[in-house]
Design goal:
The complex is a heterodimer. By secondary structure, chain A is mainly alpha-helical. Chain A contains 24 helices and four strands. In chain A, strand 1 and strand 2 form a beta hairpin. Classes of the chains: A mainly alpha, B mainly alpha.
């Protein structure tokens, strides 16, 4: 039996679980304790088959679904297997977490939620398996719709409905771009299989058109500038497992699509495509991280952080395109390896962090950073695992984020070898931008972790915060373990990613990496740069241990708990801690032109002072509102046609028909 | 024999056209339904003959389908509707009938003019009748525009479908079976839905006059 068949069985299993959810519409216990764990088992099986597919040869299948004479073509190759691995591994953690997460009485009944959730998973798996434009679009839209319903699970809240609408709108703009892109790619042959598209050789003009359409289309789903506005609205609106799934996995399907179209179908020929992707990516990353640093809602903060990471991925892919266009296969493979590593790493740590916010939200009922604090004592599991995610997200060794960012910067160091003198001057400047983004990401994560988990509780009710349930913890542990293992064994992971880069650019770095042994990671040569995560971990752990022992010895193990130093104040309350707003203030000051800020400062004589600051996106006022106004203006004009009389409407059709007939005739 | 039969196609085509004019001129709903039934019968006969002459056997099936649907089933449905709604003798005027007839003549001339080059290209045996078929479509459309009541509009819609069907038979010896079945099914479902609509309109406004629907406009 082929691996692809097993994968299809897993997908069918997910669909069956979804249908079973309809059968137990309001039976929360059954859905949560039976269906979601079953889905998790299927997910881990999918991850296993994906690894098998990654190591095996490409397989194809034709599903007799869809329209007559238009079946679904499926293909399992390195690229799709890699993304299936991401889907399976992340869905396992999220499904286990969700089993402990869903409670009674939150909008959509749990059974329906189960259907939407598993449909979402199945459609994502089929998106990456699709081998013709028809199957791809059907699955892409299924994915968009099922996630829309998941986002609007709590549809009685108007703000959530609006967020869902915005999401759906931008998803459809993107889908239009993708559809047009496939239309260009098939080059008037009428055959929409990817095999045919691969065989076409388009003129540079049309290839560029297809590439730009794909960038807009997949960029809308991924959340690149200026199509990012849905992300910070939709992610906080959705239940936490859904936000985790969307941010960690669904955004990656857009990355998959971009890789599939620009490398596999178009061959990444033009150097300026790479420059465009890098420029857009860096702008997105910087924008995302700066906004992320000033957010006060924890899920919005993470959503903006996802925008930043997507930007980094675009930079990596752009660099890959650039090298590939100049025929530097090995360097292109290095840049793509960095991007794919980051796909995997981001999927793990972002889902971990989103799920952690879910646990905090359930424990405290509070999403605003200003009302949290000191949860480390109440929820130690969630806090420590969040720390893992936070460190990985900041790109610190020995976690996954460091490996990918290090590889990305390594590949930037080779850009001086580009044959174009402008490029080898300009591109290294982008590397500086990446470094800035990475530093700001660290800043943001310190804020996220410090404000939620450290310090004193800012509200009295936080004393009642209950720790996460065992299933929630299990899900978090899986994802946290992923972050750690990805950070500790990069050589082995690169061995898997190598299959993908060989498919995309015909080169890989695994051989070079393996030549240096499994302990040290060195993408080019050992003299140039190398990184030994296990050695690093060993040294750090040893240093920490040594310090602890020394401290114990020197202070004779005395431990004393006392009130913190008062600084001479007569009283000290939890409200006096540094707040999220306060922590983000320097960023707000430095990057002021990025924001559209409104501040209300209290007067000094106010007995009950209120401080309010709202931060808005410039794009909202520069781009979206004008478009919305224009649309409603046109709609009013068109509304004049609406007379309310059927005879008039029929007359419109009649006149149109006559005119068209006349045109045809002449 | 063959030439006689091909002449008879032209005859049936003319019958269709005359019936279309008759429907425009007819005010009474019951008579309209009778005219529609006749039109369906003529259409079925024409399809049968085209099928016989060209040896396209699936046209026999189309003819049978047309007969069952447009001569038996839909007229029965329409009779039941007007019986229940009690509008058998409803007289309605939105537009001066002689003027409408004059516009109709203009349409027929237009249709013939339009069909002339297409008919030259077509190889079907009934190609001369393409203009007539097109004229039937346009006339039925005109009828839908000038009628103020719901039932005649529905009949106009159905007779437009007759014209289209005839055009397809005349120009290309019929559509693929799957398309034909689809259209037949659509018409049947359409008439059921429109029937429900008519009851709803009546219930809402105590009349079938579609001018009441103008109130539904959004300001």
């Amino acid at each position: 039996m082929l691996v692809l068949d097993w994968i299809l069985i897993v997908i069918a299993g997910w669909l069956a679980l979804g249908v079973a959810g309809i059968g137990a519409l309001r039976n929360t216990a059954f859905v949560a304790r039976v269906l979601f764990p079953a889905g998790a088992v299927l997910a881990v099986a999918l991850a296993g088959f994906a690894v098998a597919g990654l190591l095996g040869t490409p397989e194809t299948a034709v599903l007799a679904l869809g329209l007559p004479d238009l079946p679904f073509h499926l293909r399992l190759d390195g690229l799709s297997a890699f993304f299936l691995l991401v889907i399976g591994a992340i869905a396992f953690g999220i499904s286990i977490f969700a089993a402990g997460y869903f409670r009674h009485g939150e909008g959509t009944p749990p059974g329906l939620m189960c259907l939407e959730y598993h449909l979402f998973l199945a459609s994502m798996a089929l998106v990456v398996l699709a081998d013709d434009a028809y199957a791809f679009m059907v699955m892409w839209e299924t994915m968009a719709l099922s996630s829309f319903f998941l986002v609007t699970a709590n549809h009685r809240v108007p703000a959530i409905r609006e967020a869902g609408f915005l999401y759906l709108l931008i998803a459809h703009i993107g889908a239009l771009g993708i559809l047009l892109c496939f239309g260009v790619l098939q080059a008037n042959t009428g055959d929409y299989t990817f095999a045919n598209m691969r065989a076409q050789s388009l003129s540079p003009l049309w290839a560029s058109a297809a590439f730009l359409l794909a960038t807009v289309g997949f960029g809308a789903k991924a959340g690149i500038l200026p199509l990012h506005v849905w992300l910070p609205e939709a992610h906080p609106a959705a239940p936490s497992p859904v936000s985790a799934l969307m941010s960690a996995v669904m955004l990656k399907t857009a990355i998959y699509g971009l890789l599939r179209v620009s490398f596999d179908l178009l061959g990444a020929q033009q150097w300026w495509w790479g420059v465009l992707l890098m420029a857009v990516g860096l702008a997105t990353a910087l924008y995302g991280v700066v906004f992320s640093a000033v957010q006060t809602d924890m899920k919005r903060l993470l959503a903006y952080s996802s925008i930043e990471n997507i930007g980094l991925l675009f930079v990596g892919i752009g660099l890959g395109v650039l090298f590939n266009a100049y025929g530097m296969k090995a360097l292109s493979a290095l840049a793509l390896t960095a991007a794919l590593y980051h796909v995997l790493g981001h999927a793990f740590f972002k889902s971990l962090l989103f799920l952690a916010t879910g646990s905090v939200l359930h424990a405290t009922g509070e999403r605003s950073l200003g009302k949290l604090g000191g949860l480390m004592r109440r929820m130690p599991w969630v806090a420590w695992l969040s720390l893992v995610g936070v460190l990985a997200s900041s790109g610190l060794p020995p976690f996954s984020g460091f490996v990918s960012e290090w590889l990305l910067l390594q590949s930037f160091l080779f850009t001086t070898g580009l044959p174009d003198s402008f490029l080898n001057m300009l591109v290294p400047v982008l590397a500086a931008g990446i470094a800035l983004v990475a530093a700001l990401a660290g800043y943001t994560m310190v804020k996220f972790f410090g404000v939620i988990f450290l310090g004193q509780p800012r509200e009295p009710k936080l004393a009642d915060a209950h720790p996460a349930s065992p299933l929630e913890r299990a899900g978090l542990v899986w994802l946290g373990a992923g972050c750690v293992l990805l950070g500790l064994f990069p050589v082995q992971v690169i061995g898997l990613i190598d299959r993908v880069t060989r498919l995309l650019v015909g080169g890989g770095i695994a051989d070079t990496v393996r030549a240096n042994g499994w302990l040290l990671l060195s993408p080019s040569s050992i003299d140039r740069a190398s990184y030994g995560p296990l050695v690093f971990l060993g040294v750090v752990s040893l240093a920490v241990l040594l310090t602890a022992v020394l401290v114990r010895k020197l202070y004779h193990g005395r431990l004393r708990r006392a009130p913190a130093w008062d600084c001479g104040f007569p009283a000290q309350t939890a409200r006096m801690q540094d707040t999220a707003e306060g922590f983000g203030q320097p960023i707000r000051q430095i990057f002021e032109p990025f924001f559209r800020m409104r501040r209300e400062l209290p007067s000094p004589f106010d007995a009950k002072p209120h401080y309010r600051v709202t931060i808005e996106d410039h794009f909202w006022h520069w781009l979206y509102l004008p478009v919305a106004r224009l649309t409603s203006l046109i709609a009013r004009g068109v509304g004049r046609l609406q007379q309310g009389r059927i005879a008039i409407y029929l007359l419109y059709s009649f006149v149109t028909l006559m005119v068209l007939l006349l045109v045809v005739k002449s | 024999m063959t030439s006689l039969l091909s002449q008879s196609i032209n005859l049936f085509a003319v019958v269709l056209l005359v019936l279309a004019f008759a429907m425009i001129a007819q005010r009474r709903i019951l008579t309209l339904i009778h005219l529609f039934t006749l039109q369906g019968a003529a259409l079925a006969a024409a399809t049968l003959i085209v099928g016989y002459l060209t040896g396209q056997h699936h046209l026999y099936f189309s003819a049978a389908l047309t007969f069952v649907l447009k001569v038996v089933l839909i007229p029965i449905l329409l009779h039941r509707v007007i019986l229940r709604l009690n509008v058998r003798w409803d007289v309605e005027t939105l537009f001066n009938i002689p003027t409408t007839m004059l516009i109709g003549i203009v349409l027929v001339i237009f249709a013939f003019n339009l069909a002339a080059p297409i008919a030259g290209l077509s190889t079907s045996i009934a190609r001369g009748t393409l203009g007539i078929a097109l004229a039937c479509v346009l006339l039925s459309f005109l009828m839908m525009i000038v009628r103020a009541k719901a039932v005649p509009q529905v009949i106009g819609f159905l007779s437009m479908e007759n014209g289209l069907f005839f055009a397809a038979t005349a120009a290309t010896s019929g559509m693929p079976m799957i398309v034909e079945l689809g259209i037949a099914f659509d018409v049947l479902v359409g008439i059921l839905i429109l029937g429900v609509f008519m009851f709803q309109i009546r219930e809402q406004f105590d009349s079938l006059d579609i001018r009441h629907l103008e109130k539904l406009k959004e300001d």
